[in-house]
Amino acid sequence: MKFSKATNYALHTMLMLVEASNLKPIGVKQLAESQNVSPTYLSKILTRLVKAGMIESVSGANGGYRLSRKKDDITFLDIIHAIEGTTSLFECDFVHGEECLIQAAMKEAEEKMEQHLKQTKLADIAKKQTKIES
Predict the structure, then answer these.
(1) How far apart are CA 20 and CA 97, in angstroms?
(2) Environment class of 36 (CB within 10 Å of its CB; exposed 0-12, middle 13-18, buried 19+)
(3) Which of 92, 89, 84, 20 is nearest to 58 (CA)?
(4) Residue-level pLDDT at 134
(5) Confidence tier at 1 by pLDDT (50, 70, 90)
(6) Cα 27 to Cα 29: distance, rounded to the nearest angstrom
(7) Cα 68 → chain centroid
(8) Between vectors from CA 72 to CA 131 and to CA 52, what angle results, nearest 5°?
(9) 40 strand-pairing partners
(10) Which of 6, 70, 120, 132 could bridge 76 with an S-S bond, Cβ 3.0-4.6 Å?
């Protein structure tokens, strides 16, 4: 299973914003440079995160992005859904109805993965990273 690079950048960007002080926004250039990605590309990802209500854009000379939700409420699944959408990862293309056992097995696996991602909070990852860096 593979998620897009956009999801990878979104998760890392959100981790940076969780670790940062919520008082001072972080500019798109700084966020992009830390991941070695173009600011234009990252801006598109940030727009999706704004639309999902996880971050907000602050205008002005000291503008940038900061969290708009409590950091303890943001899960991996929230971020993945903001970037990838909520459609199923697997859809059976054969015409044999909803009783397809392969589709059922894939759906069950996806539900278990989503449950794990829903329980994985970005704030917990930030705490672990702080311990590693100390």
Answers:
(1) 49
(2) exposed
(3) 20
(4) 64
(5) low
(6) 5
(7) 14
(8) 125
(9) none
(10) 120
Q: How far apart are CA 13 and CA 10, in angstroms?
A: 5
Residue 26, strand partner residues: 65
pLDDT at 66: 94
Residue with tokens 């991996």: 76
Tell me the DSSP string of 55-124. Answer: EEEE-STT-EEEESS-GGG-BHHHHHHHHH-SS-S----SSS-TT-HHHHHHHHHHHHHHHHHHH-BHHH
Residues, the chain: 134
Amino acid identity at 1: M
Positive or negative torsion for Cα 35, 74, 57, 18: negative
Lowest mean pLDDT across 30-34, 62-66, 72-76, 126-130: 126-130
Per-residue pLDDT tens over the stretch 20-61: 877 789 999 999 999 999 999 999 999 999 999 999 999 988
